[in-house]
Write a structure and sequence with these properties.
By secondary structure, the chain is an alpha+beta fold. The protein folds into two domains: 205 residues, UDP-n-acetylglucosamine1-carboxyvinyl-transferase, Chain; 206 residues, Enolpyruvate transferase domain (UDP-n-acetylglucosamine1-carboxyvinyl-transferase, Chain, Alpha-beta prism), CATH 3.65.10. It has 13 helices and 23 strands. Strands 21-22-1-23 form a four-stranded mixed sheet, with helices on one face. It has a four-stranded mixed sheet with strand order 2-14-16-15. A hairpin with a 2-residue loop joins strand 7 and strand 8. Bound molecules: uridine-diphosphate-2(N-acetylglucosaminyl) butyric acid. InterPro entries: Enolpyruvate_Tfrase_dom, Enolpyruvate_Tfrase_sf, MurA_subfamily, RNA3'P_cycl/enolpyr_Trfase_a/b, UDP_GlcNAc_COvinyl_MurA. It catalyses: phosphoenolpyruvate + UDP-N-acetyl-alpha-D-glucosamine = UDP-N-acetyl-3-O-(1-carboxyvinyl)-alpha-D-glucosamine + phosphate.
Length: 417
């Protein structure tokens, strides 16, 4: 096990390149198995979840070849093999194998997913969708068994706006007989990315990115080549880190529209944000104003940026209130930030943050975005060395992290625990 060491207090300066989006990649990889011929995915992030997904596709009988940031997937000889345990437990997004295998083979047996369990994360809306399409779903010793003699299009209203359920239903419905309409669908850019891939494979999906998605099922899907959108959460994290260290950073290879809520909130604090065509420049300022932030479904402020934003708000003058309306209790970073001198009080789904300096400390990342919060805090702490354990969580979402931060002038390194 390794730990991340940060000697903070240096403003970040320079340019950072953003990778392809993790949360798109882990949906596009299983989506590729719906095709009958080769799919090439470009701009993949170099992350453990992506590598594990490649191995899962191989276990299902696919041929997978890495070529730099691209992966060639030949799904022609795949089968729906039961996957109750093993690698499916390593990542949350293994639930997308349910929709993809159901769509192509009419059956799937997948163990309950693993991943960042900062709170119980049900998948009842995914199951409701599969059942509406005509599948029988049962719980078989901790695995979900899904089977359908024939998938039929249906009208599905999601009771909760869910990224995972929206994508999983799209995957299965793309091969169903007739039309499926998903109402109250999630609108995240990753959903549009999946629909773009599926349409390039021959699917007929309209309305992705709005709350009503219409999928006209087709008999067969074919191979294609697709480049993954940039990771808006990785980009947002570097935006926050640049502001928190009072730096000047060009965040390159982003779609600024995907970061509008982040940009608006930084500007409200007094951070200078310059939007370019495919880049955003952050110019930090000596002082910031306290603000209120509400994490909501897209296009609201992303819950995945709520944790690092907590660290930035410790640098504002006065009291900020940060509430998460996507998850009830995603605040595992808060006790660790308090160890670093932060003045934060939790009240229900809100963190009340009083601005003040942070000091270096030994802290533990309990999940991926909690880790991002601790990195921002460590970069900001003026004296001493912050030691962050739980780096394996951080590695799930931020590739080239140490290299990128060093290139921006941070004093960061990894050590054996
Ligand atoms: N929910 C239900 N029932 C369901 C599905 C979701 O009650 O069947 C609830 C969840 O408990 C949560 C809310 O609905 O309170 C939203 O969950 P959603 O299904 O949208 O989340 P997800 O698809 O499991 C993805 C990302 C998360 C990100 C959320 C919200 C992937 C692999 N994960 O999760 O990313 O926080 O959407 O935007 O795409 C991360 O990257 O750190 C991460 C956790």
């Amino acid at each position: 096990m390794e730990k991340l060491m940060i000697r903070g207090g240096r403003p970040l300066r320079g340019t950072v390149q953003i990778s392809g989006a993790k949360n798109s990649a882990v949906a596009l990889l299983p989506a590729s198995l719906l095709a009958e011929s080769e799919v090439v995915l470009d701009n993949l992030p170099q992350l453990s979840d992506v590598a594990v997904y490649g191995e899962l596709l191989q276990e299902l009988g696919g041929t997978v070849q890495w070529d730099g940031e691209s992966m060639r997937i030949d799904p022609s000889s795949m089968r729906s093999i039961p996957m109750p345990n093993g690698k499916v437990k390593l990542l949350r997004a293994s639930y997308y194998l349910m929709g993809a295998l159901l769509g192509r083979f009419g059956e799937a047996v997948i163990g309950m997913p693993g991943g960042c369990n900062f709170e119980p994360r049900p998948i009842d809306q995914h199951i409701k969708g599969f059942e509406a399409l005509g599948a029988e779903v049962s719980n078989d010793h901790g695995s979900i068994r899904i089977k359908a003699a024939e998938l039929r299009g249906a009208k599905i209203y999601l009771d909760v706006v869910s990224v995972g359920a929206t994508i999983n239903i799209m995957l299965a419905a793309s091969r169903a007989k007739g039309a499926t309409i998903i109402e109250n669908a999630a609108k995240e850019p990753e959903i549009i990315d999946v629909a773009t891939l599926l349409n390039a494979m021959g699917a007929n999906i309209k309305g992705a990115g709005t709350e009503t998605i219409r999928i006209e099922g087709v008999d067969q899907l074919h191979g294609c080549r697709h480049s993954i959108i940039p990771d808006r959460i990785q980009a947002g994290t570097y935006m926050i880190a640049a502001a928190a260290t009072r730096g000047d950073v060009l965040i390159d290879n982003v779609i600024p529209k995907h970061l509008e809520a982040m940009t608006a909130k930084l500007q409200e604090m007094g951070v200078q944000v310059h939007e370019l065509d495919e880049a955003i420049r952050i110019v930090g300022q000596p002082t910031y104003e306290a603000i209120d932030v509400k994490a909501l479904v897209y296009p609201g402020f992303a819950t995945d940026l709520q944790s690092p934003m907590t660290s930035l708000l410790t640098q504002a003058d006065g009291v900020s209130i940060l509430s998460d309306y996507v998850y009830n209790n995603r605040f595992k970073h808060v006790p660790e930030l308090i160890r670093m001198g932060a003045k934060i009080r939790l009240e229900g789904r809100s963190a009340i943050i009083e601005g003040g300096p942070l000091n270096a400390a030994k802290v533990r990342a309990a999940d991926l975005r909690a880790g991002a919060a601790l990195i921002v805090a460590g970069l900001t702490a003026v004296e001493g060395v912050t030691e962050i354990t739980g780096v394996e969580y951080i590695d799930r979402g931020y590739d080239f992290l140490v290299d990128n931060l060093r290139q921006l002038g941070a004093d960061v390194w990894r050590e054996r625990e």
